[in-house]
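Quick one: structure tokens for this chain, please?
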Amino acid sequence: MSSSDTPGLLTGAARHAFFVLAGFSLWFAILFSPVLLEGRLFPSDGMLATFQSPKGLWNPLPFAGVPALGDPQLAQLYPLRWVFAALPSEIAFNYYIAFAYVLASSLTYGYVLRITRSTVAAIVGGLVFGASGYMVAHLGHTGLVTAVVWMPLIIWSLEELRQRFSARWFVTGALSVMLAIIAGHPQAFVHSLYLATAYALFLGSRSAMGWWRYVAMFAAIVAFGAALAAPQLLPAMELASASVRNEMTFAAFKEYAVPPAQVLTLLFPYLFGGGVPPVSQPFIGQWNLAETMGYVGLLPLMLAAIGSWLFRAERLLTFWIVVALVAFLLVLGDRTPLLSVTYYLPVINKLRAPGRHFQEMTFALAVLAAFGVKALQTRRIPTRTALRIAIAAVLVVLAALLVVALNYARLQTRADLQHITLPAFSANLAVWIPIGMLLLGVLALVNWIRNRDGITARALIVAVVAIDLASFGFFAEWRYAPDNRVLAAPDYAAKYARELNQSQQRIMPMRGYLEPLPGFSPTMSQLYSMPNASGYGPLLIRRYAELSRVLQNGWIDPAVLAPANRAADLIAARYVVVASPRGAAVSKDGVVWSDEDLRLALGSGCGNTNPTTIRIRLPAAVSADHIGIVSWTGCSTDLKQDEVVARVTLIDENRVAKEHFLRAGRETAEWAIECADVRPMTKHAVAPIFGTWDNVRNGSAPCQGHSFLAYLPVEPRRYSELLLEWLPKTPNSLVVSKLSLVDEASHRAFAITPNDVAIGDGDRFEFMETIADSSIYKNLRALPRAWLVPRVISARPAQILEAIRTSVAPDGTAFDPGTMAFVEEPFSLDSAGSTVQSNARVMELSGDKLVVSTEATAPAFLVLSEVYFPGWVAAVDDRNTEVFQTDYALRGVAVPSGKHIVTLRYRPSSFLWGLVIAAVALTGLIAIVIRARRQG
């Protein structure tokens, strides 16, 4: 080849790439047109808010602050995020998401074209992977989609290097590894890395450079890619080590596997619902649709079977067949022993959801389908064999249809239990559309077999593949897209955001990501610059989670609102948002109950220290003529039959009190009363049983425990308050798990929830307003963003957490976070008598900088309602000082008496070292390219 030929070839390659990108762009523009053309926004798992939010090293809005670079899902360094964020906000996020799908298909096209040399095969492969059920169902998992798209480029680079070494493809491989790391989802990258490792190990023996050199080169690619991503990778590793994901049990690891019955969704994707009408209804399967969806189309499955027939001649096919089978076994979870093996593999054992191995399976089937196209094009498969495969596919689908028909009644029962109306079998489009796709696919396949050289036949194959995939993708849950008006803060959100930013405090939505008001949702509140005590993300800092009782999905345990618990006060939770006023409920024994147990414990039995009285103020007065109580007693074998256990006092809206009683053997009883070693000692009978559970006790035979139902008539009135009092003098205990006020006259019931119990403390919480299904209460004890305390005590972490939860310091004195702080290092301070609380003022609060002015008449300690994390440095009047881990999860700084300026800055060494490592790696890659050019 002469040098004069090169520009023409490059122009031709660029033109080819342009048409590929344009073609797939057009396809996904059509597929996603209901969102792209109607002024709506793709749904996301919080990425929409962070996509629009300012970039920085530290994000102060969720979880009382998180290291922004450490959270991979924020994709702070991802170049495409920066490019698309520069577009107008109304379209930026949509085009960012849509382009990810274009890239996934285009890069798969490139790899498939390299191994098949067939444009039609490459188009089919690109369509199958990019528009697969796995990819489209995960559209709401934004970071996962943007990270998965680089897997085809990693594999493509390895294939090119397998043929011959090229500096360009070495650099491309390293860059693709880097992009997969920083694009937004660690799990997608880890799965890609394991797949690429298998590719190098399995196919390296066929490499032109030999197995050892090829594997070493692959290791170098990964090392360079990881080094380039080090500015994000090192902070992410630092955050992971401090997060709740640092350890994962096998029980958590195997969550979100695909149940065997739902394997049928590979053929009937909406059999268990999950799409939009008219194709589907609400999801009735296990987990959710996204985590169990692996649909690749029926015609692609037939093409993959045809492609697999050539495995004897193509070692590459053997690899992809094995990948597809292994990935399929992994998605089934612990129903096969294979998942247990992966639990012992590094990094991947920190990632749950086996159903996400559909990532590898989908790509493998896309490649196999492309080989099926190639086999038909080149006539490498006999016509009779191809027809037999098509017939076999029809028989498999018809057999699956028969299974569905025979078990349809069970499916209807499952739907009924969830109060969902399932169409009749003969009218269920989720059953019959796939059958239509099957027939269309068979016709297209037979037509091509008979007219192998016809352009129309090939075009028909591509069209049917696209239609087949669209029969799932076009009706997926992304269609429930919000209007782009959500980019502007609702009036209520703007009001609370202004107040919270002025007071420098936070909002606490107890339902987390399930909070129906988007302005308060932890996944959206960042969009409106609202400081939130909750958040959403897998790498939740463990210390903060234990302090605030928040989970990774943002749900907060109501126990944090218990009267003695000071955690919500410490994290400056000014407003608490709860369900109003009834919450979720279930019906049993003719009574509506909360689906969450109250866990109200009274008495001192079994070695516990519980209150003897619990007062519950209802959000609003409730009409009732009966009260339902589910309870049990413990360590109560000495309670005699009919002995009064507790007094239940109902107080109406006029403050008139009416008393009722729970008696042993009638309304409640010992939970273990039917255990063989307990029954002979118990002096009361079995009360009406409400629920039963299996119990294993140390040193005793397994037995069943019970809860008991009391349904008491009360004087018909509107009640606003309940008082539960434990009465026996013996060391027993009572646990109340459910309470409901019932008005039989109007057939209505009020199920008391844990939030109702916690938020009903009128001395601590002030009702503000109700918006839709959410009620907002003001926490009257909430502390500011910064305050001074005169006393500091050193204690162990467990002691500190217990003190915060009980308001009792380790030395037995009362703990008031406004006057006392705990640290874990050998440091103490006692300036009792100094008035310092009101003399700390936040002067500046930004992403990675916090400035506070202090004034004290004696040495004091500055407590900051900000999460402690390595990398924060402090100075008092420009003199460096130590940042203490304070009150279990917060920051604190010692300040001398007088007036001072305390400045905290976030300067993570992990990020700085990452920059150095990335610079060295970039220099190395440039050197490789320069050397290759000199040698070429």
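The first strand starts at residue 58 and ends at 59.
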